[in-house]
């Protein structure tokens, strides 16, 4: 059954643990889940191992870290992301031109990108981030975006996200007053339990058991207050389980509850704006075309095994892989996404989903239907730098192919 709206189930409809359909109704959503280990304090995050699939992908290198005072601190690795592109390709359609503009200097170039090899020399240190964040008058947000594409250190991720998502203004002159105003406005929001509160608490409990997170903060309360405040402010929105996954990166990365709420709301609005223009059904149809074009062998294998990849694609596209990826992987992916201005990352996201399938292709081809479904629903730890690199490459290749086909069509028309 295909529903009419992008981000949430129709009123009265229960959302299963993993959505079986390809669409949802009107709303706004965002967040994600994953795991990592903390050396002391803060939080300790572990995910269930996938020993039977351990050969499929390299384990993401984990960095041990210390917590920030009594706050839970973000989980992250400082790594490389997409580099500036040397030039932009001429698009054969208005949509291609538009998406290229959204990507800014992260767009496609005339050559296949290979920035992953530049990781060591381009990794950004905590000190470099702090130098920008501690500017007295003005925070250089364009420079933060340039840094963030390489991944953001967990110590500063939350603060950087505030600037990338434009929750915090670049000018420092009114910083104290605006922070006070944000706090007061959040405190005035209705965060009281509602008819969905029992379901919300149940999903939060399942999520925390799955990720095995320990924290000095009251995580269940933080989740519940952020989600309840959003639902109570948007009465047309009905709670659905993926809200917990979409909320998680902000709760874990951002120290102040009101700022986590505003980032959560911002993410939901970006997704809502996108899916109001393109339904989830249309997005999944386009993804299936890309999947068949880029990975025809895996596409055919999934058909032979009767794996319904549309189910996975619907969730991965709507909820930004927050249900499928481990939390630290999700946050690393979002570092690069938020570095792209004007929500241009939404155009890149289908290619990141494809890059994951490509990365795990050989492993998938050794599995049967039920094993493939399990693997898709709970992806192993991945090298997100390579995944992001491949996503940009796939997008570039598809755009080049579209341009080439367009020129051939023009030549044929002229010749006729």
UniProtKB/TrEMBL annotation:
Rab-GAP TBC domain boundaries: 151-341
InterPro entries, A to Z: Rab-GAP-TBC_dom, Rab-GAP_TBC_sf
Highest classification ranks of the organism: Eukaryota, Fungi, Fungi incertae sedis, Mucoromycota, Mortierellomycotina
Region (Disordered): 1-117, 174-197
Protein name from the UniProt record: Rab-GAP TBC domain-containing protein
Domain of life: Eukaryota
Biased composition (Basic residues): 61-73
GO MF, any single term: GTPase activator activity
Biased composition (Low complexity): 23-46, 74-100
């Amino acid at each position: 059954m295909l529903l009419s709206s992008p981000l949430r189930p129709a009123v009265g409809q229960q959302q299963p643990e993993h959505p079986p359909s390809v669409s949802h109704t009107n709303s706004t959503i965002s967040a994600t889940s994953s795991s990592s280990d903390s050396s002391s304090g803060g939080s300790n995050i572990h995910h269930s191992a996938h020993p039977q699939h351990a050969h499929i992908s390299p384990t993401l290198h984990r960095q041990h870290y210390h917590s920030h005072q009594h706050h839970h601190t973000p989980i992250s690795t400082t790594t490389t992301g997409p580099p500036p592109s040397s030039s932009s390709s001429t698009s054969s359609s208005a949509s291609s031109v538009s998406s290229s503009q959204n990507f800014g200097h992260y767009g496609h170039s005339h050559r296949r990108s290979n920035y992953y090899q530049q990781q060591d020399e381009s990794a950004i240190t905590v000190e470099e981030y702090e130098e920008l964040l501690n500017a007295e008058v003005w925070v250089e947000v364009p420079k933060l975006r340039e840094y963030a594409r390489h991944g953001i250190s967990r110590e500063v991720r939350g603060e950087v996200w505030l600037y990338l998502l434009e929750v915090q203004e670049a000018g420092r002159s009114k910083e104290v007053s605006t922070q006070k105003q944000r706090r007061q406005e959040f405190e005035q929001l209705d965060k009281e339990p509602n008819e969905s509160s029992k379901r919300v608490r149940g999903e939060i409990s399942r999520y925390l058991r799955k990720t095995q997170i320990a924290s000095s903060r009251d995580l269940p309360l933080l989740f519940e207050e952020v989600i309840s405040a959003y639902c109570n402010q948007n009465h047309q929105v009905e709670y659905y389980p993926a809200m917990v996954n979409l909320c998680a990166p902000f709760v874990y990365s951002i120290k102040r509850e009101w700022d986590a709420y505003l980032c959560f709301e911002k993410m939901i609005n970006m997704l809502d704006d996108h899916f109001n223009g393109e339904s989830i059904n249309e997005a999944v149809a386009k993804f299936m075309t890309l999947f068949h074009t880029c990975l025809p062998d895996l596409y055919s294998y999934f058909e032979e095994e009767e794996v319904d990849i549309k189910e996975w694609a619907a969730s991965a596209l709507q909820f930004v892989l927050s249900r499928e990826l481990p939390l630290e992987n999700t946050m690393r992916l979002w570092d690069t996404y938020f570095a792209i201005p004007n929500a241009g990352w939404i155009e890149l996201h289908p290619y990141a989903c494809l890059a994951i399938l490509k990365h795990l292709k050989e492993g998938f081809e050794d599995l049967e239907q039920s094993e493939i479904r399990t693997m898709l629903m709970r992806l192993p730890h991945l090298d997100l730098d390579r995944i992001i690199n491949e996503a940009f490459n796939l997008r570039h290749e598809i755009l080049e192919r579209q341009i080439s086909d367009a020129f051939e069509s023009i030549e044929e028309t002229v010749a006729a």
